[in-house]
Amino acid sequence: MERWFTNPLHFNRAKRKLRNFVTTPTSTLKRANRKISFHDVATTRDITVSIDRFHELFHKNGLHRVSVPDLIIVSTAKYLIDFFDLPKHQLHIITLDKELRKGSKVIQELPNAYDPAEPADAASKVFA
To answer: Would residue 17 count as lying in a domain?
Structure first.
């Protein structure tokens, strides 16, 4: 650090300015229409809330064995659709989890999930 900062005061000032520049206030994160320049730990709040929401949706549809990693994948996919305007039809989930595959067919807001072990989801049929 001595190469870039001549004294601790300059280092602390640069650190404070960087922290203020990167951090997104909670009030901004709570807004429906928000622009987030940097996606940091505070942004994962949206994904965490979405995990809980999808957990409830899967259970309501009788799909009780969806794992937490699968819920993270689904929540992240939904986050990409909502906040980065990624078209749902361009996002595909490849999984061996039958519950996740069934859930993607039942829950309309999810992108399609495919199981390569299923004959109906063979790559030659899905991506032809």
So the answer is: no
